[in-house]
Amino acid sequence: MALQRLTAFFILYLIFGYIPSLGVILRTTEKTVWANEFEPIELTCLIESISTNNPRIEWKKIQNGVPSYVYFQNQISGDLEHRAQLIQPANLLILNTSRADTAEYRCEVAAIDDHKHFDEILISLAVRGELHCLENEGFPASQYRWFHNNEELPQDPKSSPKFINSTYSINADTGGLKFRRMRKEDAGEYYCQAKNEAGHAQCPTQLMEVYDVDIVGIFLKVLAALAGFIIVMVGVSTNFQRRMMVLTMLKQMR
């Protein structure tokens, strides 16, 4: 059977000048994608090699280890319904990202006419969050401060041991609170305070939820598990060698 396939490929090459694809192959331009909240972002799923004319394309969102369809049977579904579209042949364009979109996304392509008829690729999406607070009636112009769980956030997170690992930035003139990278510790209640010489006003509390995709943490956990496995194997190997040495010595003594 394999010989017949190779013969057919060779004949097609002689006649048409090309060798058909041996299987579907996917590629992405970025495996880790950062997006600003409320802005569009495109997840690339490039089909580098395929012979099937109408492959089955599916996208799944994986959050907390649980997959759910966001593109299935040629239509957007689930969390991205009415907020995304497929860019041919297989890219996924999210039109208006939100913090809840932070997750892993898996592009799957099934090509029944190809020798290797299935491939998939995994992309991690992290959405940078931004909270807004604006007061238009104050004169002179207000300056803004932000509070997290009733504790004031320092203008520079690096100035406080408690917030040194945070990645937020505060624009005291516009009232924007922007996170470059969200962490689980950033979840909670937020409110801002606008203040000028005439007094101050406070905005309603905003609840922010964070769905963490900690790429570095996952990598370190895998690395630690691998190191532990190697240590165990070295210990087993050393113990085995010692036993073999003892058995050899006993045989020689006999």
Walk me through what this model shows.
This protein is of the alpha+beta class and 254 residues long. The chain has two domains: 18-128, Immunoglobulins (Immunoglobulin-like); 130-208, Immunoglobulins (Immunoglobulin-like), CATH 2.60.40.10. It is 21% helix and 37% strand. It contains two helices and 19 strands. The protein has helices spanning 2-16, 215-253; strands at 25-27, 32-36, 41-43, 46-49, 56-63, 66-72, 75-76, 84-87, 91-94, 103-110, 118-128, 130-131, 143-148, 151-152, 168-171, 176-179, 188-196, 199-202, 206-208. The protein has a six-stranded mixed β-sheet, with no helix packed on it.
Order of helices and strands: HEEEEEEEEEEEEEEEEEEEH
Low-confidence stretches: 5-19, 213-238
- CA(first)-CA(last) distance: 59 Å
- Major β-sheet profile: 6 strands, mixed
Q: Which class do the helix and strand fractions yield? A: alpha+beta
Query: Approximately how much beta-strand content do the residues carry?
Result: 35-45%
CATH H level, superfamily name of the largest domain? Immunoglobulins
Helix content: 10-25%
